[in-house]
Amino acid sequence: MGFFKDFKAFLLKGDIVNLATAVIVGGAFGKIVTSFTKDVLMPPIGLALGGVDFTELKLVLKEATTNAAGEAIEAVSINYGSFVQTVLDFIIIGFCIFMVLKAYEKSKKKEEEKPAAPKGPSQEELLTEIRDLLKKQ
């Protein structure tokens, strides 16, 4: 019984819930950036480079053939176009995270720069004042 209670306490800690939320949101954000790169950014770049589809760029090491039994043997290739697109996804995601963190740091700095509210006398000072007033009476 103690094991399950400890496990439940572990799962319901704020840090774990925050981490799970961050992973889910990060995964969704990654899909958005991948779609942006693949569907919005790369087509105009490919068009500017002469109608190139980056996902189709590859270096063929061995052409597709058929064997004696008539079965197709797939080509062997290095698909560097997909790699280029993945690298661009990474750079865009990194840039977006950088911008979010910069904005976060800027907002934290503004909070730190706010002057602290003027403090009144401490409890000890007030008690000392009251004591001194009582002595004078």
Can you lay out the helices and strands and say which pair or pack?
Elements: H1 2-11, H2 14-48, E1 59-62, E2 65-66, E3 72-73, E4 76-78, H3 80-113, H4 123-136
Helix pairs in contact: 2-3
Question: Care to describe what's here?
Answer:
This protein has 137 residues and is mainly alpha-helical. It has one domain: Large-conductance mechanosensitive channel, MscL, domain 1 (Non-ribosomal Peptide Synthetase Peptidyl Carrier Protein, Chain A, Orthogonal Bundle). The protein is 68% helix and 8% strand. The chain is built from 4 helices and 4 strands. It has a two-stranded antiparallel ribbon. The protein has a two-stranded antiparallel ribbon with strand order 2-3. α2 crosses α3 (80-113). It is elongated and about 115 Å long. The N and C termini lie far apart (67 Å). The model has no long low-confidence stretch (mean pLDDT 82).
Q: How would you briefly describe this protein structure?
A:
This protein is mainly alpha-helical and 137 residues long.
Q: What is the makeup of the main sheet? A: 2 strands, antiparallel
Indicate the radius of gyration in whole angstroms: 32 Å
Strand count = 4
CATH architecture: Orthogonal Bundle
- What is the average of the pLDDT values? 82
Task: Give the N-to-C terminal Cα separation.
Answer: 67 Å
CATH topology: Non-ribosomal Peptide Synthetase Peptidyl Carrier Protein, Chain A
Keywords: Cell membrane, Ion channel, Ion transport, Membrane, Transmembrane, Transmembrane helix, Transport
Subunit structure: Homopentamer.
Pfam family, one: MscL
Transmembrane segments: 12-33, 83-104
